[in-house]
């Protein structure tokens, strides 16, 4: 079978085609920025074509050109045989398009949003009710037709956005990272909807994604890097080339997975290191585990080969720059006198007792009690709408509790909020720095807010430049930074005053796999230096980096414990090696017995926070 036939399948109709596409954006005083550089590709009807790449690869630019919203500098894009520039209006009438920030009208209800998009797309009145019913059933939004879009959870907003994109039956569906910021249950539901459309209506789907496991489900995958197409084909083509290079490393003594991970990350001959199901998944540059044994330097560990995934292939394929971050650089993260009594049993950095938060008659958080130890990485997880963001904002002092007790860094947060805030750092889910200020100006501003002046402020800014590689960007406006560097700046600002406790609200949402890995390597290093970290995330594999976690549902504790304890809750003969995704979905859907959850919570409280 030829590569073309392998990619699209024999007899598949091409619905999207790009030929030599170049897109340049003007930059004042500099040569134009080339976002796409001679891209040639095809996508077929009745198939899902995935588009992946690091930040700045050109994914969004390509999708916007395909949707007729941008014109290429040179080259052509055709959709359904129509030119994306000359026939843009006809294209837009025949496709569904869901951008990253879908344009829902926050003050309109679910039904009003659907009706508005039906008006915009010219859906005949006699077809609307049947279509609304089908879309509301498909997205499970039938119970929420009168709720304002702004009051929906993240996952529900994404499903409403998809419903609006489908309000007129499309021949091609263009999706730009549709599952960013939604939990695994909502991700699964969105993909189920997409594949039902592909199978029933034989539409073509062209989707960019930051989740590499989603790319593995696609019929074909296109890999972009710096505007160029590096590779294309079915996921199996990528994984075949990785055989003999992927290994699982498990500690043979009392070492934690995070400690093995620290030793291997960034070592010579190793291109990727992550924690999966309690073991360290390691990808080598060449076949054989020699680089792993060299990096362990005699430490006892069990090394087994593993079947490669598309994610392994992607991380090996994309050039790494700059060189991987090393944890040894974090020694100055927090000064010794600011760390508190690290390692003291029963000395909690954060604790809540019978915590409640009411919005009118609605209880967003109900009777929540837990503690976070000094120097611990603690995950706060749950489905969209579970109450974790509300809890998180109360822990940071941004939202008052209705009742109950919160203690942060030894302070009663309801009585001594200002004192507590001096000891904590906060990195918001949305980019919260001042976009028009440059990097240096942002750091000066936040340093002064935290009481830093003079030599102390300059010392910490120099630390931020060195620690996060921000020196060369110091005159760049924050809004114009690449996604990974925005994240670095936000974290640097949160750590400037050397806090004891770092609160991170979905810090890796919307950034590429490289930025996520660099982020967790840094966080692991800060935890090794004594910083307490409380983090929320929708990437369940990231929960493996936590010492312990609390999973919430409907404002209450669903389960608590180490990653091992949580995975064990869903372990069975049918599922002998569950992932964190498996555990999360099983818990969220109520497929775990209540007595198992209770015992898991007790184990999580008693196991000392060890994986």
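Q: What amino acid sequence fits the structure above?
A:
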């Amino acid at each position: 079978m030829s590569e073309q036939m392998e990619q699209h399948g024999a007899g598949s109709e091409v619905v999207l085609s790009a030929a030599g596409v170049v897109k340049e954006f003007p930059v004042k005083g500099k040569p134009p920025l080339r976002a796409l550089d001679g891209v040639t590709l095809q996508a077929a009807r009745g198939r899902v074509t995935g588009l992946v790449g690091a930040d700045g690869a050109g994914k969004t630019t390509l999708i916007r050109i395909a949707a007729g919203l941008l014109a290429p500098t040179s080259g052509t894009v055709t959709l359904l045989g129509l030119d994306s520039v000359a026939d843009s209006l006809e294209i837009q009438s025949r496709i569904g398009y869901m951008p990253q920030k879908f344009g829902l009208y926050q003050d309109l209800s679910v039904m009003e949003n659907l009706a508005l998009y039906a008006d915009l797309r010219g859906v005949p009145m006699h077809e609307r009710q049947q279509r609304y019913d089908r879309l509301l059933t498909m997205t499970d939004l039938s119970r929420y037709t009168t709720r304002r879009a702004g009051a929906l959870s993240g996952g529900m907003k994404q499903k409403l956005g998809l419903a609006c994109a489908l309000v007129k039956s499309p021949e091609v569906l263009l999706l730009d990272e549709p599952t960013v910021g939604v939990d695994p249950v909502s991700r699964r539901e969105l993909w189920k909807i997409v594949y039902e459309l592909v199978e029933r209506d034989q539409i073509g789907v062209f989707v960019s994604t930051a989740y590499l496991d989603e790319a593995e489900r696609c019929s074909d995958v296109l890999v972009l890097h710096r505007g160029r197409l590096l590779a294309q084909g079915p996921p199996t083509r990528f994984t075949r080339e990785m055989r003999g290079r992927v290994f699982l490393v498990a500690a043979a003594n009392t070492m934690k997975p995070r400690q093995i991970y620290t030793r291997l990350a960034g070592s010579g001959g190793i291109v990727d290191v992550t924690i999966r199901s309690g073991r360290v998944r390691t990808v080598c540059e060449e076949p054989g585990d020699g680089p792993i044994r060299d990096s362990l330097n005699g430490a006892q560990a069990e090394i087994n080969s593993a079947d490669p995934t598309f994610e392994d292939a992607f991380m090996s394929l994309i050039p790494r720059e700059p060189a991987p971050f090393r944890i040894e650089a974090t020694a100055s993260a927090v000064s010794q006198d600011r760390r508190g009594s690290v390692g003291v049993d029963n000395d909690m950095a954060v604790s809540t007792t019978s915590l409640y938060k009411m919005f009118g008659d609605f209880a967003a958080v109900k009777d929540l009690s837990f503690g976070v130890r000094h120097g611990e990485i603690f995950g706060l997880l749950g489905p969209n709408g579970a109450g974790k963001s509300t809890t998180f904002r109360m822990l940071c002092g941004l939202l008052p509790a209705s009742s109950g007790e919160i203690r942060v860094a030894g302070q009663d947060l309801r009585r001594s909020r200002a004192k507590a805030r001096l000891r904590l750092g906060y990195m918001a889910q949305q980019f919260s720095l001042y976009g028009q200020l440059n990097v240096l100006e942002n750091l000066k501003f936040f340093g002064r807010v935290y009481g830093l002046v003079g030599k102390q402020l300059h010392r910490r800014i120099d630390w931020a430049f060195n620690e996060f590689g921000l020196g060369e960007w110091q005159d760049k406006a924050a809004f114009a930074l690449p996604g990974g560097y925005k994240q670095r700046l936000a974290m640097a600002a949160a750590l400037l005053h050397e806090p004891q406790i770092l609160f991170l609200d979905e810090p890796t949402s919307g950034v590429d796999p490289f930025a996520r890995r660099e982020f967790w390597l840094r966080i692991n290093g800060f935890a090794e230096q004594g910083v307490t970290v409380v983090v929320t995330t929708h990437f369940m594999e990231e929960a493996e980096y936590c010492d312990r976690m609390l999973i919430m549902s409907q404002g209450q504790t669903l389960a608590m414990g180490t990653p091992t304890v949580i995975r064990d809750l869903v372990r069975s003969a049918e599922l002998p090696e569950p992932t964190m995704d498996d555990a999360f979905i099983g818990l969220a859907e109520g497929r775990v017995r209540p007595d198992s959850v209770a015992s898991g919570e007790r184990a999580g409280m008693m196991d000392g926070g060890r994986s």
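Q: And what stands out in the fold?
A: The chain has 21 helices and 24 strands.
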